[in-house]
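Following up on my earlier thread - several people asked me to post the actual chain instead of describing it. Fair enough. Here it is, all 493 residues.
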Amino acid sequence: MTGVSKDFVGVRALDDVDFDVRPGEVHALIGENGAGKSTLVNVLAGRFTDYRGTIVFEGKHVRLANPRQARKMGIAVIYQDLSVLANFTVAENIMLGDEKASRYLRKMDRASIRACACEVIDYLNFDLDPDRRVADLGRARRCMVEIAAAIRRNVKLIIFDEPTACLASGDVDKLFGVIRDLCNRGLGVIYISHRIAELPVIADRVTVLRDARVVGTREIADCKIAHLTRMMLGHELKEVFPIKTNRPGKVILKVKQLTRAGVFEDISFQLREGEVLGIAGLVGSGRTEIARAIFGADKSAGTVEIGDTVLEKRLPPLSRNVGIAMVPENRQTEGKITQRTVSENINITILDRLSRRFGFLRPRDCTRQTCRMIKRLNIEPPAPGRNIRNLSGGNQQKVIIARWLAAESRVIIFDEPTQGIDVGTKAQLYKLIIELASKGHAIILISSEMLEIAKLADRILIIQNGRLVQQLSGPLDDETQLIDACYSRGKSK
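Reply from S.P.:
Thanks for posting it. Predicted structure:
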């Protein structure tokens, strides 16, 4: 790619970008949210056609007109939000779009589909059962299914967009083994990640984007993490975790014997005003399910009490009304309101306050409220009327948080709040969490990054196989004690 530029309305998303990938290498692409990484990937995937500049693929000048052309040329993208079909089998997902029909009955030839899928699975040496439903697989194996489907189409360049964001450490090792094997077969790999510490393990070269421009390309062996961070941000990041200024006060939330059959059992704890309560455990231990039950997104037995109010019936609208908020793990499907503006996404929880007597919204008040939240959370670009899908992942997360701050929630549940977010935005969110707690908000923090829990939480609940097995006092100096506690009584299913 040479001199590639792409504009959105009034915003330069890529500015004269040069980028190349060699066969058999992993070329990492990093940068802050909004730096242009996703735009670059979408140009290569054929999703953005109104770009300027030249692209040379396998020695030929090409003009990517649509995703189908990109796939036909051999370019595949494994997005963070996987596109596998959960109710289909592994074999059906791998052969999707290239199924063969029986010669006489005009039905899908399932034997042929399975045989062709098995050839791909054997070629890649993947541990996959072709007859198993994808819904029954963990995220790491779902990613393998998507890789197998791409390889089946004779892919030559494969792009991984935040592939380890939701993976446990064991699954990360499996994925890295797959990527190395793909490189040994001569494929070129573009690897996008906000986890800079991963890069020395998996990447050969790294390119840093900042403000839509290439800051530099370096051999990974010549880079230090501090140097890459400085290139990304344009300055030194002196402090990732802020100094804790919060002081827990009186009890505001009581959870008693919360139970959901087969998922978690007999969860009881209290939460205080101004407290950050961490919930830690391995992936699949039941952390998210407990949070969803407290918020009312899933049915459960037991009682939840906020202040003097016992929530006999738990539903998200009722939880919102009493001051309980939840920033969900999956912001794509459960957090943001797709095809709506930043203003609509922020104000959805306070429409009653922004309405006239007969229910008509006051546009001036909506804009004023949105601008206040944009300024408070430093949302970029500061455009209330911009569609939320055109924001970077980190700024989308800020919009979702702004929604609950506008609602003046007393208890805020953060489930994986920094997933897929760059180190600079992470530091901003850490500071925000401590500021909220300092102002009396009660925070429940769930994260797969143990260091976040260790540094931010005042107390930490350890969940294993749906049970509360231990409680630690925080903050901790490092995550070692926390990791040992999560593994101490056997791994979660």
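The two ends are 44 Å apart (CA to CA). That should answer part of your original question.
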